[in-house]
């Protein structure tokens, strides 16, 4: 009996007892379904995070002067210039922020915003796409001009239209002593998602409005061109800052979107792997089920085995027949598991979407191929013993079996 005939025989025997076959493969079905759904959701999380991170935020690190820093240890323009001159540094921008509210068209309503003092390099650093007007420049900084740049969605919320260059907005601080600053809109940048509005203005203008007469600031954000040497460049930047102020690294701190994203992705990967391993336990149970049913099958078909041997079938023929049948049962369970995994992932995606999340579960081809391989291995591993037992049956005794 060749391999094709063995497969035909296996399929016939499997479908002659559909319920028993289904119950036998249930463990494999559940295991494969669980693994595919878990990995699909994990990949969905990963893809969504990478999409949110995007090329814009890759390689970004922010350095802070902590509360331990004395006035002469805070950042200044010399720090900016030295950092900008370092290899692998694309942009270095000063950032001096304040939380404010801006009144809307209805005087009884207002919008919470972030007022961010910075310089003209912020355009390249944040990859801002100007839709109308221009961004702040050195002349604005030197004159401490009361000008600002806002996003198109915020402009529409304030004035009912996007092109509001020349309009005035009034921002009020919400922490500490209340300060009010009136700003002229000179530029509109485009965004395609809803976030807390970010209002950009010259850092000198904001410091002047907040009665801060120092020439220092607490934050420098840096975009590094080569993420492969990201950590090395970060260390060099910190070393440059410390050298400029003849200070200690203890008074400075930093964080990095790139590092946080990698850490989060690694955590997701570990969690997905761990849960996948737990789910795979049901595959072991499924394998035991396959072995059990094959042992029952060997017992039920003892006489058939005796007849085949008496007609010239070798031990190898008998062994391959039952081994192929075990693999076929396992592959059937794997195929159903893959199908249910796809369906389950699709349903989970719909539920997540209804809850307002942008995560889209994604079933990868390698996982499907892995499921097929695992199903085959289960069939081979747990089918060897029953197949061997069938092959070792004495044909005379087998013929006598009732």
Describe the protein's topology.
Blueprint: H1 3-15, H2 18-57, E1 60-65, H3 77-84, E2 89-103, E3 110-118, H4 122-125, E4 130-133, H5 138-143, E5 147-151, H6 152-159, E6 168-173, E7 180-189, E8 198-202, H7 203-209, E9 219-224, H8 230-245, E10 252-256, H9 257-300, H10 302-310, H11 315-354, H12 365-391, H13 395-400
Helix pairs in contact: 1-11, 2-9, 2-11, 2-12, 3-8, 9-11, 9-12, 11-12
Provide the descriptors you would attach to this structure in a database record.
elongated; alpha+beta; 57% helix; 10-stranded mixed beta sheet
Shape: elongated
Low-confidence stretches: none
Percentage of residues in DSSP E strands: 15-25%
Sheet having the most strands: 10 strands, mixed
Number of helices: 13
Order of helices and strands: HHEHEEHEHEHEEEHEHEHHHHH
Structural class: alpha+beta
The gyration radius over C-alpha positions equals 34 Å
**Whole-number average pLDDT?**
83
- In angstroms, what separates the terminal alpha carbons? 25 Å
How many strand elements? 10
Q: Please estimate the helix content.
A: 55-70%
Question: Could you please describe the fold and organization of this structure?
Answer:
This protein is of the alpha+beta class. The protein has helices at residues 3-15, 18-57, 77-84, 122-125, 138-143, 152-159, 203-209, 230-245, 257-300, 302-310, 315-354, 365-391, 395-400, and strands at 60-65, 89-103, 110-118, 130-133, 147-151, 168-173, 180-189, 198-202, 219-224, 252-256. Strands 1, 2, 3, 4, 5, 6, 7, 8, 9 and 10 form a ten-stranded mixed sheet that branches. Helix 1 (3-15) packs across helix 11 (315-354), helix 2 (18-57) packs across helix 11 and helix 9 packs parallel to helix 12 (365-391). It is elongated, with a radius of gyration of 34 Å. The model has no long low-confidence stretch (mean pLDDT 83).
